[in-house]
Amino acid sequence: MFCDWLNELQRFLHWGPVIVFSLMTCVTWTTVHVNAMWWPPAESFNAAINFVLIVFFNLITLYHFSMSILVGPGLLPKHWRPENPEDEQFLQFCKVCDGYKAPRAHHCRRCKRCVLRMDHHCPWINNCIGWANQANFFYFLFFFMLGSIQSALIIGFSCYEGIYRRALLKQGDTDGIRVVLTLRSAMACMYSLGIVVGVLLATLKLMQLQIKAIIWNLSEIEGWIVKKAEYRRYASSSIGIAIPTFDYPYDMGVWRNILETFTPSNDGINWPVRPGCDQYTMTREQLAQKVQKRARTRTYRCIASATGYWLPILSQGLMVTICMPCADDPRIVVHKGDLVQVTRVQEYWLYGERVLSKREQKLQKKHQLKGHIRGWFPRCCAVEQFDEDQSAGDTVDVTHNTDQKKTKTGSKIKKRKT
Ligand SMILES: [Zn+2]
Ligand SMILES: [Zn+2]
Q1: Distance from the CA of 360 to the center of ligand 2, in angstroms?
Q2: Region Disordered: what ranges (predicted)?
Q3: Which residues are catalytic?
C-alpha cells in the first residue's frame, strides 16, 4: 500500500506536472502582485471576494490536479480473467499484464498496465484518464479554466492601466489609476498574459473533448473503435457483404451518462448496457477489427538501421523529417536484417512491431527488455518481404499512394507475387 502511494507520488516528478506547477505559480504570483495594486482586497467587500476567488480557484485546481494523479484511472488487476471461462473467447489477452482485458479496458504502454475505461494517457498529469479519475480531471479543467479567465482579466486590466498610466493621468482620469509597473513587472505581466491565454485555449479544447466523452459515455479510444466499426460496415457493404449494424452499448442517455462519471455505480469492469446489447458487444467488435488488422499486416525486412529519433534529419534527410507522422506513438530503433510486422504505411514512415529474437522474448517475459518494439520508423529503412502464402487479393492499409512509393524506394523493392 505504502509502495503504491510512493509510486503515485513519483508521478509528480515528470515534465508534465512540473510544467503545470511552474506555469500556475508564475501566473498566480503575477495575478496576486498586480491585483494588490489594481483592486486591493482590503478596499471593499467585493475586492475581498475577488481575492478569495483567486485563492479558491488555485486551491481547488491544485486539489483536483493532484487527485487526478494520485487516484489514478483505476487499474485492471494483473492476471484478470472473467468469472465465466467461456467468456474468455470474447476478450483480448494482454501479454504484458498476463490477463484478459475487461470490456472498456485498454493497455497503456506508458503506465505499463491495463486501465479501466481508458480515455487517454495525459502527459500533463503523467497518468491515464480513466474510470476512477475522469471526474477529478474534469473538475481540474473546469476550475483551471475559471481561474485562468479571472487571471487574464486582472492581468489584462492591470497591464492596460500600467502601460497607459501617463496618458490616462494627462486626460485627468486620476481616479483609480493605481497600477505602477516597473520594467520587470511589466515583462512578467506580458509573459503571464501570454501563458494564460494560451493555456485557456488549450483547456477549452480539452474541456470540449471531455464534455463529449462524458455526455455520450464514449472515451477517446472508443470513439476510434466506433469510427472503425462504421468504416468496416461501409467497406463490407461496398463489396456486397452485409455485417449486422453495431449499436454502441454504453450510451445510456445524457443524464445517466453524466451520473456514471461523477457518481460511478459500477466497478469499472461490469457496465450497464443498452437493451439489445450485452457486456461483450464492444469486445466482439474489437476482436473482429483485430482480425481485419492482422489480415492487413505485412512483413518488412530492414535494409538499413534507424535511430528511433523523432527528427532523424542527419540520418534520413529532410523529407523524412518534415513528413513525420502526426502522432505521439513511439519511434523505434531498427537494425539491418530486423523483421517488422507493419500495419500502417505512410509515404515516408511505417508503423509496426519488431519481431523479437528468442533472447529478446525471454527478456520481455522478465520485463527487462528496454526500448519500444512497436512504433514508427522511416520507410526507406525497410523493404516488404513477400510470402508465398499471402493471398494475392490482400491490400496494405495505405494513407498515401503506396504503388508510386514502391517504385520511388528503388529497385530493391520486389513486385508482389500474384
Ligand atoms: Zn495490460
Ligand atoms: Zn497511462
Answers
A1: 24
A2: 389-418
A3: 122
